[in-house]
Design goal:
- The chain is mostly helical.
- It contains eight helices and no strands.
- The protein starts with a helix and ends with a helix.
Length: 147
C-alpha cells in the first residue's frame, strides 16, 4: 500500500475521534474513568490483533480490503489514545487536591509522553526485530488482555 494512502487512512481515522473527544465529559460522568480506561485497553488489544491479522493477510488480500481493515482499526484509535488520556487526567484531577492538581497532571503527562512512549518505542522496536511484527502485535495484545 503506498505511503500516501496509508497516511490518508490514518488521518481519516483520527478525524473519527472528534465526536468522541467532544462528548468525553459525558462519557466519563456516565461510565466512570476506570471503566473508560479499562475499555480503552481492551480496544487497544483488539486493534493489535486486527493489525496482526492485516499484516498476515496483506500479501494475499486485495488492497481495498486491507485499506478498509486499516481504516476500521484507525477509527478505533481515538478510543485507545484520546480516551485513556482524558480518563487518566480525570482520575488525577479527582485524586489530587486543588493545590497539587497541576503538578500531578504534569507528572502524569511527563510519564505518559516521555517515559511511556519512549520505552514503548524502544521495547516495540526490539520486539519487532526479535520476533517479527505480527508476533510482536499479538504479544502486546496478550499483555493488554491480562491487564
Amino acid at each position: 500500500m503506498p505511503l500516501l494512502r496509508t497516511h490518508t487512512l490514518t488521518r481519516k481515522g483520527t478525524v473519527c475521534g472528534v465526536p468522541l473527544t467532544v462528548f468525553s465529559s459525558r462519557l466519563l460522568s456516565s461510565l466512570g474513568a476506570a471503566f473508560v480506561a479499562a475499555s480503552a485497553l481492551a480496544v487497544y488489544a483488539v486493534r493489535c490483533v486486527g493489525y496482526s491479522i492485516v499484516g498476515d493477510a496483506s500479501s494475499s488480500s486485495s488492497s481495498a480490503s486491507v485499506a478498509a481493515a486499516v481504516f476500521a482499526l484507525e477509527s478505533a484509535k481515538p478510543w485507545c489514545t484520546t480516551m485513556v488520556l482524558i480518563a487518566g487526567f480525570s482520575f488525577v484531577k479527582s485524586a489530587s487536591t486543588l493545590r497539587t492538581a497541576a503538578t500531578v497532571e504534569g507528572v502524569f503527562g511527563a510519564l505518559y509522553f516521555g517515559v511511556g512512549r519512549g520505552l514503548g518505542g524502544l521495547f516495540g522496536g526490539v520486539a519487532v526485530d526479535q520476533v517479527g511484527a505480527v508476533a510482536a502485535f499479538r504479544r502486546v495484545q496478550a499483555f493488554f488482555c491480562c491487564c
